Amino acid sequence: MSVKSVEVRLRPWQLAVISITGGAVGALLLALLAPARLESQMDSAMPSLAPLAERVMPAVVNINTTKTVAPRGRGGRPDPFEEFFGQGFWDRFGGGRRFPQRARSLGSGFVIDDDGYIVTNHHVVADADDIEIQFADGTEYTATVVGSDQKTDLALLKIEPSGRLPTVPLGDSDRLQIGDWVIAVGNPFGLEHTVTAGIVSARDRVIGAGPYDDFIQTDASINPGNSGGPIFDQRGRVVGIATAIFSRSGGNIGIGFATPINIARTIVDQLRTDGHVVRGWLGVSIQPLKPNLREALGLGDREGALVADVFEDSPAEDAGLERGDVVVGLDGEPVTEPGAMSRAIAMMKPGTRARLRVLRDQRERNITVTIGRLPDEGGDEDSRRGRRPGNDDLLAELGIALDDLTDDARAKLGHAPDLEGVLVAGIANGGPAAEAGIRPGDVLLEIAGDEVASPKRARKALAGAKPPILLLVKRGESTLFLTLSPPG
After folding, report:
1. Domain co-membership, 292 together with 318
2. CATH number at residue 297
3. Is residue 201 within 8 Å of residue 256, measured between CB atoms?
4. Closest by alpha carbon to 386, among 401, 407, 405?
């Protein structure tokens, strides 16, 4: 019977123990010391988060809201009988009919100072009739909304404290790195003051939640009820506000999103001072420089934000910005994508003088613009259905049908009476036009730099253009560039 040999490498201190105490005794002593040493090594590798949780938890609050919800019919639709007969009819004869209900919801928040200001999400308190705040020690208060901002999903509440309140400091979310440890404290599913831990999984996430998306992604468990709760770094400073989760089941699957505290800080300051948010406004429509656009514009590998439109009577127009300009720098910092530029402009106070570095006709130039105040935005673009493409060979190949832009079409689409262009009447599913992002109801303004005002002129411009074909399109209130590549 053979015995398999195993090589064991001992450290100098282990050899010394065996040498001094004798082989067998030394080996036994090492075996007895090993668990304690292993436990010590584990303690140093994975420090407990208990002291951190104990320090910050008193300043984290549970938020309970109630609001009046209109009665709903089957399938979640408003009850048509309620609307037809009116509430008075059912008050007299409608025993068992549905009436407005009182709905309750849960969320989280955190105290930022002794005056009783509490930060949470807009969606936690939106349309709430009553807001109740509960601390970890069971103390309860009634809160009022100081101000709320739907675009960043932030809200500031106020309570009248009876004594000194526990608070938490705000950190610097710009210093967060992917892989940093964070903890979340909140009220998931009504389970009060739950603490979860994880790491920063990603930064600068755009998830389609609003026009100023810039989220921290974390795998710290975040669930319904965590909304508005703080995300802490390892020093107990708030670096984010739990806002959203990605889930197919309604529960946590390790993908949660938090608003960076550096964005929230500016919004909260404005809510506290003015009760609302004032954003900076440049007055341009911008879009990313995708590879096909770079090729069509002859930009090589340059990065920046392409100006698709300049609004009338805007700061951009006053400063001399033009459609087709590419903004490559803002106040000395490079511009690599439109979202970051939009957020930076929005955070500027009206009246601020900003320096833009602009690429125009292959040459860079500096433009100074005085930032204005963002005006009220219009409603959502209506979805429209056009006719099927016609039999024109070129247009059929591209999968697009064109029509005259009549006065009636301008009125229905909400365009100015003097707008000149060609109406996109229909798009073939899976065709080159559909792949380019063109939609029925779009208006073609330019094709390969040439203005077009009739389908005939548009066909001629398409036939003579070198692919990828650069298009300027009017869609609702926006103007954007698209590129169209014929098949083959």
Report:
1. yes
2. 2.30.42.10
3. no
4. 401
The residues of the chain scoring below 50 in pLDDT are: 1-8, 42, 73-90, 92-93, 97, 377-391
Positive or negative: CA dihedral 13, 17, 23, 29: negative
Residues 6 or more apart whose Cβ sits within 8 Å of residue 15: none
- Residue whose tokens read 């104990």: 54
Pairing of strands 238-245, 256-260: antiparallel
Which residues of 313-439 form beta strands (DSSP E)? 326-330, 333-334, 353-360, 363-370, 372-373, 400-404, 422-427
Distance CA 432, CA 41 (A): 61
How far apart, in Å, do the first and last CA atoms of the chain sit?
A: 74
Distance CA 253, CA 261 (A): 23
Which positions are catalytic? 123, 153, 227
Phi, psi (rounded to 5 degrees) for 359? -100, 120
160 and 202 in a common domain: yes
User: Residue 478: its pLDDT value, please?
Assistant: 87
Q: What is the pLDDT of residues 221-276, one digit of tens each?
A: 998 889 999 999 999 999 999 998 887 666 777 889 999 999 999 999 999 998 98
Q: Look up the domain containing 323 and give its range.
A: 280-373
Residues 73, 203: one domain? yes
> Checking phi first, is residue 371 left (phi over 0); if not, alpha (psi -120 to 50) or beta?
beta
Candidates 269, 242, 237, 109; CA nearest to 173 is 237
CB atoms within 10 A of CB 254: 15
C-alpha–C-alpha distance, residues 209 and 211, integer Å: 7
Q: What is the DSSP string of 299-312?
A: -TT---EEEEEE-T
Q: In this structure, what token pair is assigned to residue 59? A: 């300043």
Give the pLDDT score at 186: 93
The total of other beta-carbon atoms located within 10 Å of residue 306's CB is: 24
At 486 the pLDDT is 83
Helical H segments across 203-337, by residue range? 261-274, 291-297, 315-319
How many domains, the chain?
3
> 41: part of which helix (H) or strand (E)?
helix 23-45
- Based on the fold, state whether residues 447 and 458 are members of the same structural domain: yes
In a domain, 241, yes or no: yes
Angle at 140 between CA 134 and CA 144, to 5 degrees: 85
Instruction: Quote the CA–CA distance of 459 and 402 in Å, as a whole number.
Output: 9
In 347-406, alpha helices (H): 393-398
pLDDT recorded at residue 19: 55
